[in-house]
Amino acid sequence: MKSDTNSSVSIDNIYQLDGKVPIAKAIPFGIQHVLAMFVANLAPIIIVVGAATAANPDLDIDLASLIQNAMFIAGLGSLIQLYPVWKIGSRLPVIMGVSFTFLASLIYVSTNFNYETMIGAIIVGGIIEGTLGLLAKYWRKFIAPIVSACIVTAIGFSLLSVGAASFGGGNGASDFGSTRNLLLGTITLISCLSFNSLAKGFWKQLSVLFGLIVGYIIAVFMGMVDFSPIAEASFFSIPKFMPFKPQFNLSAIISMVVVFLVSAAETIGDTTAVCAGGLGRDITEREIQGSLACDGFLSAVSGLFGCAPITSFSQNVGLVAMTKVVNRFTIMFGALTLILAGLFPKIGALFATLPEPVLGGCTIMMFGSIVVSGIGMIADCGFSQRNTTIAALSLSIGIGFTQIPEIYQQLPALFRDIFSSNPVANVFVIAIVMSLVLPKEREEKQKEN
Predict the structure, then answer these.
(1) Domain count, the chain
(2) Of the four, 124, 339, 366, 420, which is 20 to 30 A from 206 by CA?
(3) Domain for residue 342, yes or no?
């Protein structure tokens, strides 16, 4: 009888969805995923709370508690994606976190209504997205492969500026683009590339973690790491459930639900990219159903903990596409690390000290991997006239218009908030409309010939 690799503990299992990996070798891969998304997971909640308290100075919000909750929910959501509960979860190597996609709408609702109304809108919107996920078999056929390919490509392009911003020191940094920031980012990038080129076997896939460690050590010697948050953080704390009493407003709910639909498109793109880039196959209906159900229902749970919605993190999709490490057991340690960071604030504070240029040096290549995966998916769909038209127009308008956001200035505020800075939303709408409208006869005739 042939031995089944999945039934034994082996490092070779890192390239398979199932199977055990030696714990000592699995933990670094899990932590690598946490480091790739940790700062981005915290930034949205910090920005939203800042805007809400500026609009309402009497608002009493414990930011440290919300940050702790955000880490806990991100870990819980990631764990359920890996190991589903009922029909909730995709069984794919997907890491969840607080999304920038919702940022504009969250600021709009929290400042024009109040924070409690924002929480109510998140809960309702999450339940709606989760329900749509469970009903995926009824509408999945409307999302053609070329649409998913365009969404994945748009996600990659949208992240390039995120990586570049981190490389320069982070948005809003007083020393953005300074020599020391660029030097630190470059050293980190070179460290990643060197390790990826020189390391052998499974060690090669830890190039991002190696780059982060080297970059962090260099940053310490350059005086760019502030350790005070670690000293100030408490040792142990239970996440606070329902720190705010939800309020419900129809206008706020509608504005949030629209963004949840956009987030659903991103999640479909992320999970499709994981399957294509990491597993070398198409996504299944069950995986779409589970990923969206987790996306939605866990966002509702996040609202109950006073936090913003969570969704699949494209940063981690890029890591999967680059390393091909898809093992659920391995990535589970990343989810557990996030949960521990939510229970032991000092752990979270340690990760939060990671300088932006170090993060940028590691992620800029990962994000490029998503673009390449998307282009590969478009190629797999075939360059028929119909597919070429859908891809060319959706990407040129979807990405091009967001480079000139003033083009949306005469449109309603809600429309501007959703589309002016979100290329994924633009590409999704244009690609799906064109896919439904353009006749298929032309493509079918080409295949017959």
Answers:
(1) 1
(2) 339
(3) yes
CA distance 251 to 45: 22
**SS3 label, residue 310:** strand
Q: Give the three-state DSSP class for 20.
A: strand
Per-residue pLDDT of 2-52, as tens digits, reads: 444 455 888 888 999 999 999 998 999 888 888 778 767 877 887 788 788
| Mean pLDDT across 247-270 | 86
Label each residue of 37-103 as H, E or C: HHHHHHHHHHHHHHHHHHHCCCCCCCHHHHHHHHHHHHHHHHHHHHCCECCECCCCCCCEEECHHHH
In a domain, 444, yes or no: no
Report the sign of the C-alpha dihedral through residues 322, 352, 327, 310, in that order.
negative
Using the predicted structure, report yes or no on whether residue 370 has a pLDDT greater than 80: no
Number of C-beta neighbours around residue 447 at 10 A: 8
Q: What is the pLDDT of residues 189-244, one digit of tens each?
A: 999 999 988 887 767 778 888 888 999 999 999 999 988 888 888 888 899 899 99
Give the angle 381-387-393 at the CA atoms, nearest 5°.
130
| Alpha carbon distance 312, 237 (integer Å) | 26
- Residue-wise pLDDT for 97-110, tens only, equals 987 778 777 888 88
Return the H-helix or E-strand segment holding 155: helix 145-168
Would you say residue 418 has pLDDT above 50? Answer: yes
Q: Confirm whether 96 is domain-assigned.
A: yes
Question: What per-residue confidence (pLDDT) applies to 116?
Answer: 95
Q: How many percent of the chain have pLDDT more than 90? A: 40
Please give the residue range of the domain that contains residue 332.
Answer: 21-437
Give DSSP secondary structure letters for 330-382. Answer: HHHHHHHHHHHHHH-HHHHHHHHT--HHHHHHHHHHHHHHHHHHHHHHHHHH-
Cα gap 232→186, rounded to integer Å: 31
Whether 275 contacts 287, CB under 8 Å: yes
Structure tokens at 320: 């999967």
Length of the chain: 449
Report yes or no on 13 lying in a domain: no
Q: Which amino acid is at 182?
A: L
